[in-house]
Amino acid sequence: MWGYILVGIAGFIAGAQNAVAGGGSFLTFPALLFAGLDPRAANINSTIALFPAQLTMGWAGRNMAEGAAGLSLRTLVILSVIGGAIGAVLLLCTPVSVFTHLVPWLILFATLVFVWGNFFARPRQADEKPPLPAKAALVIQFIIAIYGGYFGGGIGILMLAALTAAGLAVRHAGATKNVLAGIMNVAAVVIFVSRGHIAWGLVATQCVTAIAGGYVGVAILRRAPLNILRIAVAAIGTALTIGMFLRG
Questions:
Q1: How far apart are CA 68 and CA 233, in angstroms?
Q2: This prediction's pTM
Q3: Cβ neighbours of residue 163 under 8 Å, at least 6 residues apart?
């Protein structure tokens, strides 16, 4: 019972967090670990639980989504689907013991990316030429999609960094990121579900609360200071990284 309560609360906050600043998996992942899942299963179930909320956010902002660096949105979508599928297959082929040892490093990487993207990266000026050409943007998005299918922590920040470097304004980059995040997990979720062994009770609880949290997050986005939210995400990622290294 306590596991379900914690998973539900984590899902709600993660939904709001993803709508505002990203990093929701930093909450859903450890909550599922607490509920008794091993690290690989927790990652798989977290991906499935957050998927409907991702689709909802992507659909809501679809009119602002667009291509970048000369690549059409359709091209980015295709890359994301293929990359997400490859990442999901790689995850299922990774033994639980190996993935358990990888998790602290993956979370550390995601946390560093989040901190860099939110506190240290220099915003691109309106008249500044995008530093990311089409070929580089294509390769980077494909790699990000593979990472997203495999683990996914910090995926939103990675895509925001890549899309803004490719020339998109932050508002359009955010909308495009939401669309691509949902799309890249379509293949991953289908593969995960087809393999079975899903904790559907925990997933359903987290899914419903994440969707509710997403709607609340949109309201928070209009009022709450973003720096406070970003600091909270960075703190959670840091604490989780330390905890996973100590646990290992």
A1: 27
A2: 0.76
A3: 68, 172, 173, 176, 177
